[in-house]
Design a protein that fits this description.
The chain is about 75% helix and about 0% strand. The protein has about 375 residues and is mostly helical. The chain has a single domain, classed as Mitochondrial carrier fold, CATH 1.50.40.10. Helix 10 (about 255-285) crosses helix 12. It is elongated and about 95 Å long. The two termini are about 25 Å apart.
Length: about 375
């Protein structure tokens, strides 16, 4: 295995490991954020319930109504998705990064450029890696979104059924009180159906066929600019930090510096692309989250138009504070763990190569 290939594999494995750890630690915040993003509320209703807008239900509300398990709905497919997503992304990112650095070095030999990779090149590298990642892993994230919002959707359905029972009783001239109470009691006794990964996949397929697994792909593909912006900020800042560390006589940057650089990079990327994330979550969630047709979306453009028309521009920033905390902390943790794992994998690969060389030498002797 060549040095560049080993480097790509090490980065892929490190990215997957770091992503899993970050996902487990911050998953409750991610669940709450997804529910906040997919909560529909009209302009009129939000003025009547300002306390619920735009943040939506928090961790404490989910724990009280669903227990701790509610915060980890869809965790298993999410971990699979995180490992696959981070592994694929970092592998291809490193492959294209190595290529970009080789091109920059070749240009320097020819007297063009200083041998460093520019910001535009970093953006292109991150965008290509991100696009490949999105196309390959989008079905997993559709299932995760469904599982995170399933209880929320079921609650909305129950609320609509309750409203229908009360409305029918109010419109009846001589309502049967006993029947009315029995209907409400029966409704209250109903429990949410078990909802696992297979059930979610079956539901998506029945609704839209194979295409359903790529719902939200357009805003998600556009959102590859998020990691592009993130890595542009990160790589540029890391390069400066390394130069600063070398001037101070240090061999490398510290874990704390990597953590802070990762947090800064993710903060800038999240704030600039958050509206697209909300649209993506709306498209991937179960449409029965709202009984009103004006809150059901046939595609990306339809979702954007209806959100602006019925909920206003603030709807594109629902739950952003939760997302900033979750994504910034997760990214900072991921970068910190990834850099340490890359060092570890590099050492292990180096030792493995030395062992194989020594072994081959003994065989030849």
């Amino acid at each position: 295995m060549t040095s560049s290939a080993s480097n790509s594999v090490a980065n892929g494995l490190a990215g997957a490991g770091g992503g899993i750890i970050a996902q487990i630690v911050t998953y409750p915040l991610q669940t709450v954020n997804t529910r906040q993003q997919t909560e529909r509320m009209s302009r009129r209703k939000k003025t009547e319930n300002m306390g619920d807008y735009p943040g939506g239900r928090g961790n404490a509300d989910v724990i009280r109504t669903e227990g701790w398990g509610g915060l980890y709905s869809g965790l298993k497919p999410s971990l699979v998705g995180t490992a696959a997503s981070q592994g694929i992304y970092y592998y291809f990112y490193q492959v294209f990064k190595n290529r970009a650095e080789a091109i920059a070095a070749a240009r320097k030999i020819k007297g063009r450029g200083d041998g460093t990779v520019g910001m535009l090149s970093w953006l292109i590298v991150a965008a290509i890696a991100g696009s490949l990642n999105v196309l390959l892993t989008n079905p997993i994230w559709v299932l995760v979104t469904r599982m995170q919002t399933h209880t929320q959707a079921e609650r909305k359905i129950m609320e609509m059924k309750r409203e229908a029972i009360i409305r029918d009783a109010a419109e009846t001239i001589l309502p049967d009180q006993r029947t009315f109470e029995d209907n409400l009691a029966e409704l209250d006794s109903m429990k949410p159906k078990p909802y696992g990964t297979f059930h979610a996949a079956q539901e998506v397929y029945c609704e839209a066929g194979i295409r359903g697994f790529w719902k939200g792909i357009i805003p998600t593909l556009i959102m590859v600019c998020n990691p592009s912006i993130q890595f542009m900020i990160y790589e540029t800042s890391l390069k400066k930090a390394k130069h600063s560390a070398n001037r101070r006589g240090l061999e490398n940057v510290t874990m704390l510096e990597v953590f802070l650089l990762g947090a800064l990079a993710k903060l800038g990327a999240t704030v600039s692309t958050y509206p697209l994330l909300v649209v993506k979550s709306r498209l991937q969630a179960k449409q029965e989250i709202s009984g009103n047709i004006k809150h059901r979306y046939t595609g990306t453009l339809d979702a954007i138009i209806k959100m602006i028309r019925y909920e206003g521009l603030p709807s594109f920033y629902k739950g952003m504070s939760t997302k900033i905390v979750q994504s910034v902390f997760a990214a900072a943790l991921l970068f910190m763990v990834k850099e340490e794992l890359v060092k570890m994998f590099t050492i292990l690969i180096g030792r493995s190569k030395k062992f194989m060389l020594r072994k081959n030498k003994l065989v030849c002797d």
